[in-house]
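Repro case for the chain-ordering regression, as requested:
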Amino acid sequence: MPLSYYLILSAIMFLIGILGVLLRRNPLIMFMSLELMFNAANLAFVAFAAYHQALSGQLFVFFVMTVAAAEVAVGLALMVAIFRTRHTIDVDELSMLQG
Amino acid sequence: MSINDFLAILPVLVVLVTGVLVMVADVFLPEGRKGIAALLSGLGLAAGLGAALAAVPSTGTAFAGMVVADGFSLFLDALFAAVGLVGIGLAYDYFKRMRLQRGEYYTLLLFSIGGMMLMGHANDLVMFFLALELLSIPLYILSGFFRARLASQEAALKYFLLGAFSSGFVLYGIAMVFGGTASINLEGIVAAVRDGSANLTFLLVGAALLVVGFAFKVSAVPFHAWTPDVYEGAPSPLTGFMSSATKAAGFAALIRLLLVVFPALGENLAPVVSGLAALTMIAGNLIALVQTNIKRLLAYSSIAHAGYLLIGLVAVNSSAAGDAVAAMLFYLVGYAIANLGAWSVVVAAEQAEGRGLELEDYSGLGRKYPWLGVAMLVFMLSFIGVPLTLGFWGKLYLFRVALESGLFGLAVIGIAASLVSAYYYLRVVVYMFFRDGEGVARRDVWLNLIAIGSAAAVVLMALVPGDLLQVAAQAVLRVP
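-- result from build under test --
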C-alpha cells in the first residue's frame, strides 16, 4: 500500500483526537482522545520508518508508549483524587478558577 | 559509551541522582523532620550548579549524538539549578506553614529540573520529547499538591489535559519532521535539508506543529488559556518556580529547533512566530490590566514576558542570530530573578486556605514591612523595564536586536505594551504603600533573603549589564 494511505489515516486519527479533547467534557473521554493523538503520531512514525527504511522512527514509538503509560498513571491518579472530594469529574463542574 | 558521555551531562545526572536519593531518604525521615529532604535537595542542586559552572563547553556531541554540552546548555543548567535552589527556599517555610511538609515535593521538583536541564542539552528529537515529558509530568503532580484543596486539583487536571494535548502536537510534529527528513537527529535533519533530500512540505508541517506544542509550554497567546488557572490553583512556591524555569526550558527548545529549521523554512515560519509575539504581548498585557488576584496578575505578566521573548525568537531568523540568543538568555535571567523575588513576596503574604492573594489584601503591606514593599517596587519596576533595573537592560537588548534584524513593528508593539504594563504593575505598589489595610506577611528568614537578595541582584546587576551580556554571548549554541 502507498505511504499516503497510512498518512491519511493517521491525520484523521489526529484530528479526531484534537476534536475529542476540545469538544468532549468528560476527562476520561478527553483522555482517550489524547491517546488517539499519540497513536496517530505512532502510526505516522512506523509508516515513515518503513518508507524511509530508517529504524529510528520505530524506536521512537517505544519511547512514546512508555511515556504515554507514565502520563496515564498520573492522569488517572488526578481523576481519582478529584472524584474522591467531589464525586464528579465533569470538567464543566470544575469552575472554581475563572479560566 | 565512555566516561566523557556522562561528564557531558554531569549537572543533569547530579540533579536526577539527588532526586532519587531524596525519594529514598524521605521514607526514613520521621514526620516533622521533612526539612531534611529540602536540605538534601538544596545540596544536590548546589552541586549541580557547581558542576554546570565548572564544566567546559564542548563542541562535540555525546551518547552517539543524542546530547550536546555546549555553552548554551551549560548556561541553562546553571540557570535551572539556581532557580531550583530559590524554588526550594520559597517552598520550605510555606509548606511547613500549610502543614504539608512532604518529601515528595522536593523529589518531583528535582526530576522536573532534571528534565529542564536535559531540554537544553537535547540534540535529538527523542531527547526533546523525553525531556519535555520529564519536566512536565512532575509539574502536573506538583500543581495538585494540595490534595484536599479544590482549586489545586482543578489546576492539576487542567494543566495535565492541556499539557498532554500540547505534547500530542509536539509528537505529531516530530513524526512529520522525521517523515520529511528520514532522521530524528538534528545533524541528520540539517544534512537532509542541505543536500536537498528533505521533503520541505512535511518539514514545514512538522516544524509548525512543534512551534504550536512549545508555544503551549511558554504560554504564548492563543495557547495560553491554561496559564492563569494553573498559576492560581497551584501552590504559590511552585508557581514561582514554574513561571521562571518552564518558560526558559520552552524557549531553549524553541531556539535550538528553530535554528535548525529556519535556514530552510525561515520565510514561512518567521511570520507565524512574529504573529504569536505580537498577539502575546498585546493580549497578555491588556488582560493583566483587569486582574485583581495577584497570582493571576503575575500569570498574565508571565504571558506578556513570553511575548517579548518571542521577538528575540523571530530575530533568530536573521544575521543577528547570535545576538538574539544572547539577548534572550539575558532577558530570561533578568525575568527569573525579578519573578522569583515577586513570588517570594506573594508567598510571604499568602495566608492559609488560599487567602491573602487579592490585591486588596496587599493594602498597607508596604508600610508595615518596608523591606518587602521596597523589594516589590524594585521587581515591578524591573518588569516594566524602568532604567536602573535589570529588566530595562533586558528589554533594551531585545528591542535592539529586533531593530537590527528589521523587526520595527514588533519593537514598537513591545515598547507600547511595556508602557501599558506600567499601570498594573504599579497598581500593586500603590496598594502596598498608599492604602490602609490589615494585611499581614509571614516573616521567614528564607523568604526575606530571597526577596531582598533578588531586589539587590536586580539593581546591582543592572550596573554592569555589558559584562552580563558578554557572559550570555559566550554561551554559544553548537550549530549542527
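Ordering looks correct now. The mean pLDDT of chain B is 93.
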